[in-house]
């Protein structure tokens, strides 16, 4: 903790800053413009006072930034959209087309400024993360986390508070979706803008690292096209989430082609199943359903076998995309202790179990007493039951085959996981209609959506970026990651190769691992390794000052 | 059995950790610097804000307790080799059955006037780093003396704080005492491009000038030029730290003399790491190798001897690595600064991308001997295998792709290298 000198201006200016921030947070809730203005002015005067007291410091910052002035300019231009966003959030009505234009234009200029020729490649400034007040899990990070929390809570349960910001993106929504903007469009848009902006910054920072460049370009492409434009355009062409002539809602399915079950836990929900067979959505909706099944059952294991789970986690996934770009500044905050690894293994597999049981319950209760015809297959409760059992039994057989290559304890864990799911499947099949496991399946789904979908992946997952690091959700919660992690660990060519005994134990690899893997513990022993949680971002290899690490796909000899 | 290890650097700590795997004896690690083993090479990243100091600690703190290795932070005042005990600064007496000296190095001094002024300092220990943190406050210009690895690291550290740095190098090019001219000038050209770093080659500091308050004002070179500075970093190398065994019966030269089993002249006393001086070094090798890798190997080696049976220390194939700002350096095998009569060389470089490969092979047999890689990552194990198997240079260059270690999607330069090589052979008509 820093020592406070009660006499100094700095102390009082800090109090002013904190006061201003709390006023602002309060005014976010009660939507009082005058209060937020007061908060803003207190904050501003706090900052002015602060800079008077630390004149030397401020001066030295400008001195340091002599080669970085362009970067500073980019930062200043980039803060314009922040300002517009924030003022709208506080309840000011800055959402006319002019503001929208300024918003987009200043982001564009800010990106362009990054690419002006510079004397150095931001060498030192970008590296000194532990001197940065926001990146160091300090008081300011908590403030940032609280702002994230508030945003998410309002997004999920009080969308009215975000109305002004949504309106800001109305022109965009009308243009690509042919619909007025709602809070989800707002969320998708700023999510995408975040990934694009910080993604380009990331590429600029690591422009000499070919792997990082291609990986980030892929993430940006995947977010913009797969996660943002394709679903929006589907809506624009009335192929998803649309009304018929009589204004009857035709249903919604997640049209993002890479959002696979179990990450997309709604994939098998009743409303989605109905949307897949909706006549007006054809042939896209049904193809999407079949694609989703193939993606989960066939492509995911196959891709993971050849390249590890990185093909998804750090090349395509939206959650990963946000973590790798917006969350890049917080990657070093993940916990590296052995204890957190233990917790991680328990929690992430529990979530996988939870989502499997929930999906089974939802599927069986949806099909109980119902025959649904999909093209020329008639599906009922029994066919669902049999096909899921078959898949699970095939998996048991598959893991038994893998057993030769893996360790015993993990094999038991996997078989235990599958047998538990099978058990629940049997209970679900032979129990009543809607009430599959004592509780209603809709309750199970709702609680999964609330606990895992909203709180874990959203509020905690992103909200805790500045405190627990960027991959908190991916590491502890994501069922897709845990599903692929099993394959990666025991049936994959992917590994992190350690170069002989070149390691100097400096610890950069461990610190900059967002998944909290203690890479150094392997590197210093000269052991090449594969960890199920590794998302293959390649940062350990990038920051290694001695060229010790490399991500590779190699044919492994049988090891036990 | 009580094994006492003095010094918890990489040599001492590796010895302790490896010994624990092999034996149940009592192990004590003594250090006056910091109770936990940390990576000395990572200290620069702490100063630059890239790591926190605790990140440089190599093992989690409860690792030592779990493995029952007791850590002791105290200063050593006396060793009694005859009765096998040591005395600490506070008067405490500790008995031992076997003693491992891993005291490391101390930085070399310039031995000129004015080295006592405030602002003149070395960079070796954690204490030096703390001192640097104090000394570099409000510094606008700094001078770093010594064209070696610690010198260039100190330059990078100071530049990261916005300090103008003058780098004084005794030789024609940076690190020319180790690297051959081609490689050294290549690195030198890279360093020239770093903004706010001023290189002064062939310059020797003759005098340090301070004011009446004991503060540093600047330096004077041998040529008589005056350079003003508020901080002077002296990084002209290290020498074995043998202060604690001075005036004892232990045989020393520059370092503590050890045989091939790392035994000193006294029974049950071993010396490893930077402080150890091999009586019979292997061919072409130095008797003192003050680098991380040698220290680690010595630590691992001595742990086997301690647990029994005796284990001979082999220096093995020379390997080293470094980083000059963003430029990585790696070598496998010994590339000497000047070629032997028996040796021939082949250099490939890409100035634009700052990449260089320097191969050394035997003239007659074309046996591959060593490689320097700058700006490129290479597979240590593959090259070691080639050296051991006495592969010819042509075979090495043909299969170069297997030995490159750059990240995926990087450009494969192996064909380019081979093409250049065949071109050279064709022109010189040398029968290979």
Radius of gyration of chain A: 25 Å
Give the largest chain-chain interface (CB within 8 Å). Answer: A-B, 45 and 47 residues
SS-based structural class of chain B? alpha/beta
Based on DSSP secondary structure assignment, what is the total number of beta strands of chain B? 25
Helical residue percent of chain A?
55-70%
Low-pLDDT residue spans of chain B: none
Distance between the termini of chain B: 58 Å
Strand arrangement, largest sheet of chain A? 1-2
Level-1 CATH class name of the largest domain in chain B: Alpha Beta
The tally of beta strands of chain A, per DSSP, is 4
CATH fourth-tier homologous superfamily of the largest domain in chain B = FAD/NAD(P)-binding domain
Order of helices and strands of chain A: HHHHHHHHHHHHHHHHEEHHHHHHEHHHE
Inertia-based shape of chain A: globular
Radius of gyration of chain B: 23 Å
Task: Please give a structural write-up.
The complex is a heterodimer of chains A (about 550) and B (about 425). Chain A is an all-alpha fold. Chain A has 25 helices and 4 strands. Chain A has helices at about 10-30, 35-55, 55-65, 70-90, 95-115, 125, 140-155, 165-170, 170-175, 185-205, 210-235, 270-275, 285-305, 310-315, 320-325, 340-365, 380-400, 410-430, 440-465, 465-470, 470-475, 480-490, 510, 520-525, 540-545; strands at about 370-375, 375-380, 495-500, 550-555. In chain A, helix 10 (about 185-205) packs across helix 15. Chain B is of the alpha/beta class and about 425 residues long.
Secondary structure layout plus pairing:
The complex is a heterodimer of chains A (560) and B (432).
Chain A: H1 9-30, H2 33-53, H3 55-64, H4 69-89, H5 97-114, H6 123-127, H7 139-157, H8 163-168, H9 170-177, H10 183-205, H11 210-236, H12 270-276, H13 284-307, H14 310-313, H15 318-325, H16 338-367, E1 372-374, E2 377-379, H17 381-402, H18 408-430, H19 441-463, H20 465-468, H21 472-476, H22 479-490, E3 494-498, H23 508-511, H24 519-523, H25 539-543, E4 549-553
Antiparallel strand pairs in A: 1-2, 3-4
Helix pairs in contact in A: 1-2, 2-3, 4-5, 7-19, 10-11, 10-15, 11-15, 16-17, 16-18, 16-19, 16-22, 17-18
Chain B: E1 2-6, H1 10-22, E2 26-31, H2 43-47, H3 53-56, H4 61-66, E3 69-73, E4 76-80, E5 85-88, E6 93-95, E7 98-101, E8 105-107, E9 120-122, H5 126-135, E10 141-145, H6 149-160, E11 164-169, H7 181-192, E12 197-201, E13 205-210, E14 216-221, E15 226-228, E16 231-234, E17 238-240, E18 256-258, E19 269-271, E20 276-278, H8 292-307, E21 319-324, E22 327-332, E23 343-350, E24 355-362, E25 368-374, H9 380-388, H10 393-398, H11 414-428
Parallel strand pairs in B: 1-2, 1-7, 2-3, 7-19, 9-16, 10-11, 10-16, 11-12, 18-20
Antiparallel strand pairs in B: 4-5, 5-6, 8-17, 13-14, 14-15, 21-22, 22-25, 23-24, 24-25
Helix pairs in contact in B: 1-8
């Amino acid at each position: 903790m820093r020592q406070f000198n009660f006499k100094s201006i700095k102390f009082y200016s800090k109090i002013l800053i904190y006061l201003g921030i709390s006023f602002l947070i309060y005014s976010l809730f009660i939507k009082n413009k005058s209060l937020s203005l007061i908060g803003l002015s207190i904050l501003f005067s706090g900052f002015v006072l602060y800079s008077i007291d630390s004149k030397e410091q401020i001066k030295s910052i400008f001195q340091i930034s002599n080669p970085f002035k362009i970067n500073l300019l980019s930062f200043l231009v980039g803060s314009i959209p922040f300002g517009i966003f924030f003022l709208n959030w506080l309840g000011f009505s800055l959402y006319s087309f002019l503001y929208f234009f300024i918003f987009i234009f200043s982001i564009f200029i800010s990106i362009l400024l990054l690419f002006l020729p510079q004397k150095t490649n931001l060498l030192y400034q970008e590296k000194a993360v532990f001197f940065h007040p926001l990146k160091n899990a300090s008081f300011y990070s908590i403030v940032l986390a609280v702002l994230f929390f508030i945003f998410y809570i309002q997004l999920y349960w009080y969308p009215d508070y975000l109305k002004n910001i949504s309106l800001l993106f109305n022109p965009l929504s009308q243009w690509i979706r042919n619909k007025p903007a709602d809070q989800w469009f707002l969320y998708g848009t700023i999510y995408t803008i975040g990934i694009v902006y910080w993604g380009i910054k990331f590429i600029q920072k690591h422009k000499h690292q070919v792997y990082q460049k291609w990986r980030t370009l892929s993430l940006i492409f995947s977010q913009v096209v797969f996660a943002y434009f394709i679903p929006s355009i589907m809506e624009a062409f009335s192929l998803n989430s649309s009304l018929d002539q009589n204004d009857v809602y035709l249903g919604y399915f997640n049209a993002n082609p890479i959002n696979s079950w179990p990450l997309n836990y709604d994939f098998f929900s009743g409303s989605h199943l109905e949307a897949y067979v909706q006549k007006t959505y054809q042939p896209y909706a049904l193809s999407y359903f079949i694609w989703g099944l193939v993606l989960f059952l066939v492509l995911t294991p196959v891709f993971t076998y050849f390249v590890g789970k990185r093909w998804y986690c750090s090349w395509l996934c939206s959650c990963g995309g946000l973590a790798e770009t917006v969350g890049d500044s917080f990657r070093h905050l993940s916990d590296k202790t052995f204890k957190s690894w233990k917790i991680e293994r328990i929690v992430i597999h529990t979530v996988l179990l939870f989502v499997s049981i929930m999906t089974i319950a939802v599927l069986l209760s949806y099909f109980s007493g119902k025959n649904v015809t999909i093209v020329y297959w008639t599906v009922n409760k029994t066919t669902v039951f049999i096909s899921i059992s078959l898949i699970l039994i095939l998996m048991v057989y598959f893991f038994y085959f893998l057993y030769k290559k893996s360790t015993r304890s993990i094999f038991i864990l996997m078989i235990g996981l599958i047998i538990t799911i099978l058990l629940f499947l049997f209970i679900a099949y032979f129990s009543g209609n809607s009430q599959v496991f004592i509780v209603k399946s809709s309750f199970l789904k709702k609680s999964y959506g609330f606990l895992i979908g909203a709180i874990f992946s959203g509020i905690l997952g992103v909200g805790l970026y500045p405190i627990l690091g960027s991959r908190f959700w991916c590491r502890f919660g994501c069922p897709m990651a845990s599903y692929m992690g099993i394959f990666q660990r025991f049936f994959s060519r992917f590994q992190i190769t350690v170069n002989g005994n070149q390691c100097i134990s400096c610890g950069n690899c461990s610190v900059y691992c967002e998944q909290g893997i203690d890479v150094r513990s392997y590197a210093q022993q000269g052991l090449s390794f594969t960890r199920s949680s590794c998302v293959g971002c390649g940062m350990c290899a990038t920051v290694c000052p001695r060229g010790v690490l490399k991500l590779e796909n190699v044919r492994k000899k049988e090891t036990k | 059995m009580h094994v006492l290890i003095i010094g918890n650097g990489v040599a001492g700590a590796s010895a302790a950790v490896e010994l624990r795997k092999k034996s149940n004896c009592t192990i004590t690690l003594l250090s006056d610097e910091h109770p936990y083993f940390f990576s000395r090479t990572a200290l620069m990243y702490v100063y630059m804000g890239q790591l926190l100091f605790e990140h440089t600690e190599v093992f989690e703190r409860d690792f030592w307790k779990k493995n029952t290795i007791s850590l002791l932070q105290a200063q050593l005042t006396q060793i009694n080799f005859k009765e096998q005990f040591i005395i600490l600064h506070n008067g405490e007496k500790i008995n031992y059955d076997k003693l491992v000296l891993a005291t490391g190095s101390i930085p070399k001094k310039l031995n000129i006037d004015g080295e006592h002024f405030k602002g003149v300092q070395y960079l070796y220990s954690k204490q030096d780093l703390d001192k640097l943190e104090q000394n570099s406050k409000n510094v606008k210009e700094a001078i770093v003396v010594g064209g070696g690895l610690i010198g260039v690291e100190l330059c990078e550290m100071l530049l990261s704080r916005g300090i103008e740095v003058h780098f004084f190098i005794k030789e024609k090019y940076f690190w020319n005492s180790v690297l051959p001219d081609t490689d050294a000038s290549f690195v030198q050209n890279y360093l020239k491009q770093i903004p706010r770093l001023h290189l002064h080659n062939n310059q020797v500091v003759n005098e340090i000038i301070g004011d009446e308050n004991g503060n540093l004002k600047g330096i004077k070179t041998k040529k008589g030029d005056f350079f003003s500075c508020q901080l002077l970093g002296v990084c002209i190398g290290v020498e074995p730290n043998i202060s604690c065994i001075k005036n004892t019966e232990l045989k020393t030269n520059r370092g503590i003399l050890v045989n091939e089993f790392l035994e000193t002249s006294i029974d049950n006393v071993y010396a490893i790491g930077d402080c150890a001086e091999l009586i019979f070094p292997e061919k072409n090798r130095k008797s003192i190798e003050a680098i991380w890798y040698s220290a680690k190997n010595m630590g691992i080696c001595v742990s086997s001897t301690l647990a029994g049976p005796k284990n001979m220390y082999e220096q093995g194939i020379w390997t080293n690595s470094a980083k000059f700002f963003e430029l990585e350096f790696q070598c496998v095998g010994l590339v000497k600064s000047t070629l032997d009569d028996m040796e021939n060389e082949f250099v490939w470089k890409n100035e634009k991308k700052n990449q260089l490969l320097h191969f050394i092979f035997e003239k007659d047999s074309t046996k591959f001997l060593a490689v320097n890689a700058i700006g490129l990552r290479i597979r240590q194990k593959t090259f070691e295998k080639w050296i051991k198997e006495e592969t010819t240079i042509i075979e090495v260059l043909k299969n170069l792709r297997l030995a490159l270690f750059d990240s995926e999607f990087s450009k494969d330069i192996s064909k380019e290298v081979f093409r250049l090589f065949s071109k050279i052979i064709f022109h010189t008509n040398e029968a290979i």
